[in-house]
From TrEMBL, chain A:
Main location: nucleus
Protein name: DNA-directed RNA polymerase III subunit RPC3
Location in or out of the cell: Nucleus
Subunit structure: Component of the RNA polymerase III (Pol III) complex consisting of 17 subunits.
From TrEMBL, chain B:
Subcellular locations according to the entry: Nucleus
Domain of life: Eukaryota
Name of this chain's protein: DNA-directed RNA polymerase III subunit RPC6
Lineage: Eukaryota, Metazoa, Chordata, Craniata, Vertebrata
Organism: Dicentrarchus labrax (European seabass)
One GO term of the biological process aspect: transcription by RNA polymerase III
Keywords, in A-Z order: DNA-directed RNA polymerase, Nucleus, Transcription
C-alpha cells in the first residue's frame, strides 16, 4: 500500500461516499486494522458518524471486520484494503461491459449492484424494472421476468456472485424467516456462489412472475413492498474477478487483432470462450484444446475451412509474442493460450509505449534493445541502436534517472575503480511495471483533483444553472407561458453559457482520461498479479 | 703452425696430410673454440669482427636463413629452418635469427601455429634509408599497429622516447609520406597514426555511417525509414493478395539481400553499403519494434545466404495503441515527481493540464 494508492483511495471514497467516509477510510488504510474506539479517538469523529461510515464501507465490501487479534472477545477490528477501493475507479468499465454483453438491463443491474454494494435478487430486479419502465414510453412497462432472466444470465456467466454469508455478524442466513426450502441451501454451500443459484433463480423467477399480475401496473411507483420473495438473506454482489478475466481476454484478443489479423483474433476469442469455465482464474495458460474442438466451436459465420484454421494456428504459435502455444500433437494438435505470457508481453508493450511517448522513439529503441539483450555496455548500446554516442549517452542517463533503466556494476578488482569496472545497463520489467503502476495511480489522483478543482472553480455557476433548470422544469410543469420560459432561460448570460460548455467539455475529458489510465492500470495490475501467482 | 706439423708428420713417416687441409682443420677448430667462447660471453658481434674477416674465414649463419626466408615470402617457422639446415644447432639457429632481427632484416610474427619469421620488405627498409634508429623504431611501432592506428602517447610508451622527439619524427615520416594521421571517431581530438598505404579500420572511421568522424544520424534515419517502407509495402502486398494465411505470411518476408538490393537501387547512399551494414539498419528496426526477424536454413549458394542461413525480415504491426496513461498530460509531464496538491506544482494549477483541456 503506497502513499499514491492511499491518496487515490481517499479521493475515490470522498467522491463516492463523502468527506466523512473518506476520512475514516484513509485512516483505516494508513493505520491498518483498528477497533471502533481507536478509530473514534484518532479521527476525532463522533461515534455515530464513524459507525455510519463503517457501515457504508462494509456494505460495499471495502471493509472487513473480524474479532480482535489480541485475545478472544477483544473488540472487533476493522480493516480496509486498497484493492477493493481502487475498483471504484473501474465501475464505469464494468457497467459498460455489462451493457455491451447484456444490453440495458444488464447495465442497470450491474449499476444498481455497484451503487449499493450488495442487494437481494428480488429488490435488484424490482428496482431495475422500475427504472427501465420509467424511461419507457407511457403505457409500456418492463416485465420482471425479463429482468430476472437477464440477472440469472449474469449469474450463469459468473459476472454476479452471492455474497459469502456473514459468519459472526449475527445475521445468520438460517435465522431469516424465509420459505422452507431456502435455509438448507446457503448452509450446505457456505461459500460457493454458483451452485445454489439455479434452484434459487427458478423459484425467484416464479415468485416474481406470480406477482406480475398484481404488481406490474404500479411498477412505476418505487415503493418497497413488504412482501417476501423467498430470497431474503441471499445478497448478490458483482464478481470483479470475472470482469477482470473478461477484460484480460479482451486485451489479448485485441492485441492479436492488432498484431496479426481479425481472423486470428476470432480464433483466439473462440479458444478463450471455450476455456472460460474450465480454466482457473490464476492459471498461466488455458486448458489444452485440440484443433478439432476449436474447429467445431468456431462460429459458422466466420467460414474458416479446416486447413486454413490449421495454418492460422501454426501462425499464432510461430508468432514471437507467443499468445498461443502448442501443447501436444494429439487430436490434430493441442493448443493453449498463454495467458500470463500474453499479459507479460502486453505489459512490456505498455512500458515500451510509455518510453516511446515520453522520451521519443530513439529512447524507446534503446529501451527495447535493453529488454531484448538484457545487459549491455554503453558502447554496445550506441553501436546496436545506431545512435551517436553523445545522444545515446544523454538518453541512457535520462532513462536511468527516471528509473526505467538500471545500471549494474561489475568490478574486475574489488576496489570498484571506475576504469576497471564494467557498467552494464539493463531493464527489469517487473519493478519498472510496478513503478509505472504507482505513476498511474498518481496520474488518476491528479486528474480527479483537477476535476474537483474545475468544478469548485465554477461552483457558483453550476449552482445557478441548476437552479434555473429547476425553475424551468417547474414552470413547464405548471404550464407557463413561453415568454416566461425564455425570460428565465436568459438569466444565464452568453459568456456564462460558454463557460458552462467549456466546463462540461473539461470534465468529460478528464473523466475519459481517468478511464484510459485505468486501462493501463488494469494491464499492469494483472501483469504484476500474474507474476505473483506463477 | 700447420706447415710445421706436416713436416713433423712427414719426418716421423706417419700418414701425412697436405698442409692446407690441416690448416683448415686447425682454423676450424680454433674458430669453433672462439665462437663458443664468445657465445658464452654473449658478444658474437665481437667474434664476428675479430674472426670473420668479412666472412672470409667464416660467417655467422644467417645468410642461409635469409635465403630461405626469401623463398617463402609469407614467412617460415622454426621447423622449416630446422629441416632445411639440419647441420645447425638450435642455439646457433637462434643466434642467427636474433642477429637478423636486430639488424631489422627479419620480422617476427605470431600466428596460430607458433612463431613465424619473415623477410622484411626490402621496400620498407629501402624507404627507411637515411633515417636513424629512432625513426626506424617509431616506424616499426606504427607498422605493428596495423590499420587500427596508434596514438602518439602509446608510441611514446612503447618507444620510451620523449614526446618532442616523437613529434619531430612523426612529422618527418609524414612528410616522407610513409605514415599518415587519421582522426578517430571514438575521440574526435585523438589522432592515430598508421602506414600511408593502409585503409583505416572500421573502428577508426566508424564504417559507412561516419563522414569525417561525424556520425551521420540523418543518413541512418533515412535508411531506417526506407528499409521499413520496403518491408511494409511487401507486407501490405502480401496481405492484399488474399491467399492462404501461410502464404501471406511467407510472402511478407524479405531477405536481407533483397533489402540490400532495393537500397542499392534506390541510390540514396553515396558510399557502398555492405549486406552487414543493411543488417545493422534492419536490426535497429527490430529494436524499434517495427520488424521481426527469423533465420531459416538456406541451400548453399543461394543469394543472400551466409553459412547456410538466411535472415528474413518482415514488417509487423504494433501490439497495442499508445497506452492510456501517456494520453494524459501527467504521463508525459517533466515535473511529475515534483507535483503535489498544495505545492508549487499541483494538478490544480498545472499549465500542461490547462493547455490540454483547452485543446
Amino acid at each position: 500500500m503506497t502513499a499514491q494508492e492511499v491518496r487515490l483511495c481517499g479521493l475515490l471514497l470522498q467522491e463516492h461516499f463523502g468527506e466523512v467516509v473518506a476520512k475514516v477510510g484513509t485512516h483505516l488504510l494508513k493505520s491498518g486494522a483498528q477497533n471502533l474506539r481507536t478509530i473514534i479517538h484518532e479521527t476525532g469523529i463522533s461515534l455515530d458518524l464513524v459507525k455510519k461510515s463503517l457501515c457504508v464501507l462494509v456494505q460495499h465490501g471495502t471493509c472487513v471486520f473480524s474479532s480482535g487479534r489480541k485475545a478472544p472477545g477483544s473488540p472487533t477490528e476493522y480493516r480496509t484494503s486498497c484493492d477493493r477501493i481502487l475498483r471504484i475507479l473501474r465501475y464505469p468499465r464494468y457497467i459498460y461491459t455489462a451493457k455491451t454483453l447484456y444490453g440495458d438491463t444488464g447495465e442497470l443491474i450491474i449499476e444498481e449492484l455497484l451503487q449499493r454494494g450488495d442487494m437481494t435478487m428480488s429488490s435488484t430486479v424490482k428496482t431495475v424494472a422500475d427504472r427501465l419502465t420509467q424511461n419507457m414510453e407511457e403505457g409500456r412497462s418492463m416485465d420482471y421476468s425479463e429482468v430476472s432472466s437477464a440477472f440469472s444470465k449474469l449469474v450463469e456467466t459468473h459476472f454476479l456472485q452471492r455474497c459469502p454469508p456473514m459468519a459472526g455478524a449475527g445475521t445468520k442466513d438460517s435465522g431469516t424467516p424465509a420459505t422452507p426450502a431456502t435455509p438448507a441451501i446457503p448452509e450446505s454451500f457456505p461459500d460457493c456462489y454458483r451452485v445454489p443459484h439455479v434452484t434459487l433463480i427458478g423459484r425467484g423467477k416464479r415468485r416474481l412472475s406470480n406477482e406480475d399480475g398484481e404488481d406490474q401496473r404500479n411498477a412505476k411507483k418505487t415503493k418497497m413492498d413488504s412482501e417476501t420473495h423467498g430470497d431474503e438473506g441471499i445478497y448478490w454482489q458483482v464478481n470483479f474477478e470475472r470482469f477482470h478475466l473478461h477484460f484480460r481476454d479482451q486485451a489479448i484478443i485485441s492485441a492479436v487483432a492488432n498484431k496479426l489479423d481479425q481472423t486470428s483474433s476470432e480464433i483466439v476469442r473462440t479458444m478463450l470462450r471455450m476455456s472460460e469455465v474450465t480454466t482457473s482464474p490464476t492459471a498461466t495458460c488455458t486448458k489444452p484444446l485440440s484443433a478439432n474442438e476449436i474447429f467445431r466451436s468456431l462460429p459458422s459465420s466466420y467460414n474458416i475451412p479446416r486447413p486454413i484454421l490449421d495454418q492460422y494456428l501454426t501462425l499464432l504459435v510461430d508468432d514471437p509474442m507467443e499468445f498461443v502455444g502448442k501443447a501436444g500433437e494429439s487430436g490434430g494438435g493441442m493448443y493453449v493460450v498463454n495467458l500470463h505470457k500474453a499479459l507479460a508481453n502486453l505489459a512490456r508493450a505498455t512500458l515500451e509505449s510509455v518510453v516511446q511517448e515520453r522520451f521519443g522513439s530513439r529512447s524507446a529503441r534503446i529501451f527495447r534493445l535493453l529488454l531484448r539483450k538484457r545487459h549491455l555496455e554503453q558502447k554496445q548500446v550506441e553501436d546496436f541502436a545506431m545512435i551517436p554516442a553523445k545522444e545515446a549517452k544523454d538518453m541512457l542517463y535520462t532513462l536511468l534517472s527516471q528509473n526505467l533503466v538500471q545500471l549494474q556494476e561489475i568490478p574486475k578488482t574489488p576496489d570498484y575503480a571506475p576504469s576497471r569496472t564494467f557498467y552494464l545497463y539493463t531493464v527489469n520489467q517487473l519493478p519498472t511495471a510496478r513503478m509505472l503502476l504507482q505513476n498511474c495511480y498518481k496520474t488518476v489522483a491528479n486528474l480527479i483533483e483537477r476535476r474537483l478543482f474545475e468544478s469548485k472553480e465554477s461552483k457558483r455557476l453550476l449552482e445557478k444553472s441548476q437552479r434555473i433548470e429547476a425553475i424551468l422544469a417547474s414552470l413547464q410543469a405548471s404550464g407557463a407561458e413561453p415568454e416566461q420560459l425564455t425570460e428565465v432561460e436568459e438569466m444565464i448570460t452568453a459568456p456564462e453559457k460558454q463557460q458552462l460548455e467549456a466546463l462540461r467539455l473539461h470534465i468529460n475529458k478528464l473523466d475519459s482520461a481517468e478511464n484510459q489510465v485505468d486501462e493501463t492500470i488494469f494491464l499492469l495490475e494483472s501483469y504484476v498479479n500474474s507474476t505473483a501467482t506463477s | 703452425m700447420s706447415i710445421y706439423l706436416t713436416r713433423r708428420d712427414r719426418l716421423q713417416g706417419g700418414p701425412t696430410l697436405d698442409p692446407v687441409t690441416l690448416w683448415r682443420y686447425n682454423v676450424k677448430a680454433r674458430l669453433r673454440l672462439e665462437f663458443c667462447f664468445h657465445r658464452v660471453t654473449g658478444n658474437t658481434d665481437v667474434f664476428e669482427q675479430q674472426w670473420a674477416h668479412e666472412e672470409l674465414l667464416c660467417r655467422v649463419t644467417g645468410g642461409e636463413i635469409k635465403e630461405l626466408c626469401q623463398q617463402f615470402p609469407h614467412g617460415i617457422t622454426d621447423q622449416v629452418i630446422q629441416n632445411d639446415m639440419p647441420h645447425l644447432e638450435p642455439q646457433q639457429r637462434a643466434m642467427a635469427i636474433n642477429k637478423l632481427l636486430s639488424l631489422g632484416q627479419l620480422d617476427l610474427l605470431r600466428n596460430s601455429s607458433g612463431l613465424l619469421y619473415r623477410m622484411k620488405d626490402m621496400q620498407s627498409t629501402s624507404k627507411m634509408k637515411g633515417s636513424d634508429n629512432q625513426e626506424k623504431l617509431v616506424y616499426q611501432i606504427i607498422e605493428d599497429a596495423g590499420n587500427k592506428g596508434i596514438w602518439s602517447r602509446d608510441i611514446r610508451f612503447k618507444s620510451n622516447l620523449p614526446l618532442t622527439e616523437i613529434n619531430k619524427i612523426l612529422k618527418n615520416l609524414e612528410s616522407k609520406k610513409l605514415i599518415k594521421a587519421v582522426k578517430s571517431v571514438a575521440a574526435s581530438k585523438k589522432k592515430v597514426y598508421m602506414l600511408y598505404n593502409l585503409q583505416p579500420d572500421r573502428s577508426v572511421t566508424g564504417g559507412a555511417w561516419y563522414s569525417d568522424q561525424d556520425f551521420e544520424s540523418e543518413f541512418v534515419e533515412v535508411l531506417n525509414q526506407q528499409c521499413f517502407k520496403f518491408l511494409q509495402s511487401k507486407a501490405e502486398a502480401a496481405r492484399d493478395s488474399k491467399q492462404s494465411p501461410m502464404v501471406q505470411r511467407n510472402s511478407s518476408f524479405a531477405t536481407s539481400h533483397e533489402v540490400w538490393k532495393y537500397i542499392c537501387e534506390l541510390g540514396i547512399s553515396k558510399v557502398d553499403l555492405s549486406m552487414d551494414d543493411i543488417e545493422t539498419i534492419l536490426n535497429t528496426l527490430i529494436y524499434d519494434g517495427k520488424v521481426e526477424m527469423t533465420v531459416i536454413a538456406a541451400k548453399e549458394g543461394t543469394v543472400g545466404s551466409v553459412d547456410g542461413q538466411m535472415k528474413l525480415y518482415r514488417g509487423v504491426n504494433p501490439v497495442i495503441q499508445p497506452t492510456g496513461v501517456v494520453r494524459t498530460p501527467c504521463g508525459l509531464c517533466p515535473v511529475f515527481e515534483d507535483c503535489h496538491e498544495g505545492g508549487e506544482i499541483s494538478p490544480s494549477n498545472c499549465i500542461y493540464m490547462t493547455e490540454w483541456l483547452d485543446f
